[in-house]
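Re-run with default settings, no changes from the original entry. Doing this only to confirm the output is reproducible before filing.
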Amino acid sequence: MILYFLKKYQKFNTKVTVSKNYFKVIRAGINTTFQDEGRKNLYHVGIPFSGAMDKRNYLLSNKLVGNKINSPALEFAYQGPLLKYFGNKINIAITGDINFKIKKKDITIDGNCYQSLNLDNGDEVDILSTNKSVYGYLAIGGQIDLKYQWSSCSTNTKAIIGANDGKKFENEQVINISKLNNHSVEKKLNYINTKIENIRIIKGTNFDYFSDKGKKTFLKKEFIVSKLTDRMGMRLEGPKIENIIDTNIKSEGLIKGIIQVPADGNPIVMLSDHGTIGGYPKIGVVISADYDKLVQLSPGSKIKFKQVDLSSAENLFKLYDLETQNLISQIE
């Protein structure tokens, strides 16, 4: 079913044209892709939401350069791209906890996150690394020339769908800007990314598949984020979670944030590019308010879970959304 829809709708553009204003990718970085808010209502054909992993930082990047809030941005992991700009003056902004530099002719400037910056013809942006986190965002002040698929440009490299022919960035490719924003005034936001002690969850549909000991292990013990983590999922290592009923079930629908426990007892958290069905018992679901914090946990990070009820999860999301909107409103 998935392949049928991909073949029907996927179109590859092999002709490369260069616009008046564009970026050239000198170094692609690690898993640099185009992302927006994602694609909705396609779970029934096996297509997840995708979209920016850290939604708050994605939204703030667009606001800082005067874009529409759901415009596509560049998402990168660990090390970002090195880009050289050609064209008229343009503004950019980088969000997250990021080390980056701006190279202008004979000088190199240390970049500041949460601040829009103007680039001139020939300037370079070198995104060196994230700081004890995973994802960062680069918003470009203008319309990037991209093809949308199912009303979104979000790139899912596993399914090969979305902008950039469904692929991550490659060296020497060109990012064309079809229209520049008229925003030359630099904007700034005082914001610090924080961590939380526990990742909060609600019970999963198979919570009672696990013994009292297994539930206590899940909610009281510490887990480590493994290296087997990407946009699809986060594998955790730690004490085994005991299942007393069945370690395999009939495949059921999955959503972002669900925590499955396979036969080895090590939990797997489904992330933005997750598969839409799965046959492992589901012990919990990460609440939406904590998802941004979760995805920024790098391999080797320690993680603990805390159970809350549905009503609390809803209220926490309302608070998260209100805080996000307040931050956006501060950028004028």
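Residues 43 and 85 are 38 Å apart (CA to CA). The chain has two domains: 2-180, 199-329.
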